[in-house]
Fold this sequence. Notes:
The chain has 339 residues and is of the alpha/beta class. Helices cover 39% and strands 18% of the residues. It has a 7-stranded mixed β-sheet with strand order 5-2-1-6-9-8-7, with helices on both faces. Strands 3-4 form a two-stranded parallel ribbon. It is globular and about 65 Å long.
Amino acid sequence: MQPASPPRLTAADKAAARRLVGPRYLVGIDEAGYGPNLGPLAVAATAWRIDTDDSSDDDLYSLLRKAVSAEPAKRKIQIADSKAVYKPGKGLAGLEQAVLPALQLAGTPAAAWADLTARPGCSSVEDPTTTGFNPVLPIDLTAAQANATADRLAQGLQDAKVSLLAVALRLVFPAEFNRLVDHHGTKGAALSHVTLTLLADVLKGLPAEAGSSCRVTCDKHGGRNQYAALLQHHFPHAWVEVLDESRAVSRYRWDHQGQTRSVAFRAGGEAELPTALASMTAKYLRELAMRGFNAYWAERAPGVKPTAGYPADAKRFWADTAEARQATGIPDHQLWRSR
């Protein structure tokens, strides 16, 4: 006698098998300004909630395809690696069309620079070159354009059953950067600690319903492949499990109040939308800070050419502003990064 064939799964059965008990949370983190000698390091994180039944589809580019695109597209908001969106000398509109609506929908709108930097924890060290700097935002996008893209993103989120919960920011100016490098030993370790401190703050603000999950994607920090000890330091109340550590990706997992949390450090992490928006936000924050920095020195050293702060040009700028810097009395360690 032949054994009975197993019953065929219906479409409803398959959908039920994919269904999660709780919602899924996605977090993306990235930085801008890791390499320069001048200006701040900026780190940003974005946090999202997905409430669809199909747990196999956590790709926000797919879920939000009616409103968002990684490539320039008519009637869509471009969210991609900041290097693909922003080009020096081309203005800030490409960043503003995504970053400002995102801040608005996350409940932290920014009508001026001070709205960004006055957030608790955004910067623990005052920067003398941006004191009094407070441009109205947006700068290169019109207010009407910003409102239109916010409406488009809001509708796209609603249709996809996705929520943008938070856009978190952190600025580390040179004086603090130098202190962190001295304390942790390398600039890579300093970046990792700043990033994971921001992540811990973001995760504190997310519900941890039993059966839910939270997946975090960070861009890799330099050539580092091992992050378990760093994660364990910042999340001491959980046992961090190593899933994989390689040049391409390093993945970790732990449980928190019944919620499964995982973190991946990926080369090219900006390929995922939450990290891409974090990349754009960090870049926007740094570019605004550099506008304040250059305006400050243009007033005190008339005719000095602006700088983006990267090593070769930073040395030129440092030499060109030597007399003006001496006149201000600002210590070098508040302006120039040691590494």
